[in-house]
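Record 1 of the preview.
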Amino acid sequence: MAFYKNNWFKYLKNLIIGVGASLVMIGALGKINSEPWGGIAITIGLVTEAILFLILGLLPPEKDYYWDKLYPGLGDYQSKVSPVGGLATNGSASVKQLDGEKVEAQLNGMLDELRGMSKNLGSLKALQEVDFSSTAQQVKTMNNFYNKLNEAMAELSDTVDDTKEYRDHITALNRNLGSLNTVYGNMLHAMSNPVGRQA
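->
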């Protein structure tokens, strides 16, 4: 196996790329702030990155998938691929029929899901087409009604307090009138009795 396929080389490559990028950024910061070391740091970082990009350009691209373990020869276009440990694709009618049934069952399931999604989207479209412009006015009217109702309740509460006070005044006035009637009746009685005047 080539050295560039080893895990240690991949780790070392990623480490050097990260360190080089860090040096470039620190050097750029130093240059922006006019630090004396900024020029050296950015030069070292850019040279490191340039060498790494040269190495990466020379190395062949590596495969990141692991299908070759299950389907040996998958990377070769001309190979006859057969799955490891699975059904052999020998072209028999029973295998093709079995695969066709599986595919048809999966397609039917997908079609049912699509029908359900279509129905839900239709409901959403109907909801989108509902005109809510009058609803805002109705909410505003209802809000005004509740405000007026609250004001009326407050005024009614004040009126009840005033009514209690008025009733108390009327009760006191009735008592005073009753006392006054008694005094007036006594005076009339005393004035109409001549015997009392002569004595």
